[in-house]
Design a protein that fits this description.
By secondary structure, this protein is α+β, with helices and mostly antiparallel strands. The protein has a single domain (2-166), classed as Porin. It has one helix spanning 2-27, and strands spanning 39-47, 51-64, 68-81, 88-103, 106-121, 126-141, 147-155, 158-166. Strands 1-2-3-4-5-6-7-8 form an 8-stranded antiparallel β-barrel. The longest helix is centred in the first third of the chain and has 26 residues, at 2-27.
């Protein structure tokens, strides 16, 4: 059980590292004229009747134009799924590309990716699975790249909100 957990956790750390290093190589192209528009940290929560999640995320802008931004998002949190009569709950690692379309402070957001989960059933059976991340919603962030970030979305994990800080 623990051997599988550490093997899978090692895979997730490798994938996160590759995503981060690829965003650094894209940085050399200077597609973002203002270097203060690059990073954010935010907390997301979502729930529906039988499914939900909460996570702390780090997001890095890799493509920036006047009306479009592409962000690379990774995080760590919890996830649950309650099909009757069982209950699965556990840790999760979301990895996604977040597309922002709009200008000024208001954006339409499309978040696409995968969530790797370490689920435990009540009967102590462990399951490791991938679940899709598909969120559509609204995002508010200041154009100067500092201050509050607010997002509301609907997706595979239900109805959600997120609050964070741009830096």
């Amino acid at each position: 059980m623990y051997r599988t957990f550490f093997q899978d956790f090692g895979k997730i750390v490798t994938i996160c590292t590759l995503f981060y290093l690829s965003s650094l190589s894209i940085r050399c192209q200077d597609s973002i004229p203002n270097h203060k528009l690059r990073n954010s940290i935010h907390i997301d929560c979502a729930t529906a009747l039988y499914i939900g999640m909460a996570s702390v995320n780090f997001e890095r802008t890799i493509i920036y134009t006047n009306h479009y931004r592409l962000n690379l998002n990774s995080g760590f949190g919890g996830w649950y799924f309650v099909p009757i009569p069982r209950e699965y709950i556990g840790l999760s690692v979301p990895l996604s590309f977040n597309n922002l379309i709009g200008s000024g402070s208001n954006f339409f957001e499309a978040d696409l990716g995968l969530r790797y989960t370490f689920l435990s059933e009540r009967s102590n059976k462990d399951r490791f699975q991938y679940f899709p991340i598909l969120n559509l919603g609204y995002r508010f962030q200041r154009p100067n790249g500092k201050g509050l970030l607010f997002r509301s979305f609907i997706g595979y994990s239900g109805l959600g909100i997120g609050v964070g800080k741009l830096f």
